[in-house]
């Protein structure tokens, strides 16, 4: 197992990249600690697969270096990096049995047959493939084939890391939940460094200790699920994580006072110089209070979501979502206020630290 360091990585698929826009990865500089469970989360096209392939060695980055512990592996081929990678679609040998497919990565490395049998049986049991072990892969469903692909990623004990690229895409929803739970258990048991790519926030937040949120070729936040919720570094994290996402409201700021149209809001501290940047206040729907105090709003829509309800209101021409308890009555002349401890300020989409009040 290894600690993986990505040092000033940039990648362009075009020959002569001129500006940031030409880079599929603009700059990635992060460390994946040995034994950590990481998720790479972001929308389609943001660079997740590119980054994963750079870690595994399928792709050589245009700039920067990759280190496994202290060894520079930038110029090493995939096989030399000792990594297991599971792809979005099944990679199986159709003419081999399920058992032989799973044994292949071990036999390939000269693992003794009794050890092969032990590992393969363990993986077969974990994936619930006992009934199919002696069948050829050809006749299996795509769910079953993808389970074999997963199993091939998990069968070796000695890998530096296991990389998963949206591995549950073709798996049906119930099984998806089950496999994700098993991966998590496996991580606890064997402590492999795992990097799991997904565009699904639930999948990322349940699997990973650290979530790497990517947006347009950049890592916009590298943090725990709590950090992504409490202190989104970038407006993209604010609205991508959470359901509904963070409310973002265009604002003007003077000293410690933010102006939303004709309304004023006291900030928790004084932001530094903001120049001519585009400013937005960010507040998660969970921290919008709806009652008789605060700024007057009009109700747009109320959605019942079980024990909570989402109330959509309009404030100064902006839509705001508030998540409140189901049994809380919405007053006839509703007003909103924001929990100051959970108020964020963004300048050109990036979070601004506010100096705490003395
Ligand atoms: P994700 O996995 O997050 O969906 P990718 O890493 O596949 O994103 O792609 C990132 C960007 O790089 C996209 O704009 C995509 O079109 C581009 N891209 C990916 N692979 C190639 C390639 N082989 N050649 C050229 N452009 C590519
Ligand atoms: Mg991808």
Automatic annotation (TrEMBL):
Signal peptide: none annotated. Coiled coil: none annotated. Pfam families: ABC_tran, OB_MalK. One of its GO terms (molecular function) is ATP binding. Keywords: ATP-binding, Cell membrane, Membrane, Nucleotide-binding, Transport. It comes from the Bacteria. Residues 4-241 form the ABC transporter domain. CDD domains: ABC_Carb_Solutes_like. The keyword Transcription does not apply. PANTHER family: ABC TRANSPORTER ATP-BINDING PROTEIN (PTHR43875:SF14), MALTODEXTRIN IMPORT ATP-BINDING PROTEIN MSMX (PTHR43875). Belongs to the ABC transporter superfamily. This is ABC transporter ATP-binding protein. It comes from Chelativorans intermedius. The lineage of its organism: Bacteria, Pseudomonadati, Pseudomonadota, Alphaproteobacteria, Hyphomicrobiales.
């Amino acid at each position: 197992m290894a600690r993986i360091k990505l040092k000033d990585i940039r990648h362009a698929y075009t020959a002569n990249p001129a500006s940031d826009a030409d880079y599929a990865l603009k700059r990635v500089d992060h460390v994946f600690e040995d034994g950590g469970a990481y998720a790479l989360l972001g929308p389609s096209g943001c660079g997740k697969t590119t980054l994963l392939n750079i870690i595994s060695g399928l792709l050589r980055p245009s700039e920067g270096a990759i280190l496994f512990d202290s060894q520079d592996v930038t110029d090493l081929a995939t096989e030399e990096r000792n990594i297991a990678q599971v792809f979005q679609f099944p990679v199986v040998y159709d003419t081999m049995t399920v058992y032989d497919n799973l044994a292949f990565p071990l036999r390939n490395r000269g693992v003794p047959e009794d050890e092969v049998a032990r590992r393969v049986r363990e993986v077969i049991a974990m994936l619930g493939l006992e009934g199919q072990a002696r069948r050829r892969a050809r006749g299996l469903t795509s769910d079953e084939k993808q389970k074999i692909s997963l199993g091939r990623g998990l069968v070796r004990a000695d890998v530096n890391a296991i990389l998963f690229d949206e591995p549950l895409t073709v798996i049906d929803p119930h099984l998806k939940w089950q496999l994700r739970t098993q991966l998590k258990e496996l991580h606890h048991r064997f402590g492999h460094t795992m990097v799991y790519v997904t565009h699904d926030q639930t999948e990322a937040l349940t699997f990973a200790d650290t979530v790497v949120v990517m947006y347009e070729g950049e890592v916009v936040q590298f943090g725990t699920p709590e950090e992504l919720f409490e202190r989104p570094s970038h407006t993209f994290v604010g609205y991508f994580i959470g359901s509904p996402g963070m409310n973002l409201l265009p604002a003007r700021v003077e000293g410690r006072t933010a102006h939303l149209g004709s309304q004023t809001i006291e900030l928790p501290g004084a932001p530094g110089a903001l120049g001519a940047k585009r400013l937005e206040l960010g507040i998660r729907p969970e921290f919008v209070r709806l009652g008789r105090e605060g700024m007057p709003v009009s109700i747009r829509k109320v959605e019942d979501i079980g024990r909570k309800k989402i109330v959509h209101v309009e404030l100064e021409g902006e839509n705001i979502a508030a998540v409140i308890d189901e049994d809380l009555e919405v007053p006839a002349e509703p007003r909103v206020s924001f929990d100051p401890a959970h108020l964020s300020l963004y300048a050109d989409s990036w979070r601004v630290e506010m100096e705490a009040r003395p």
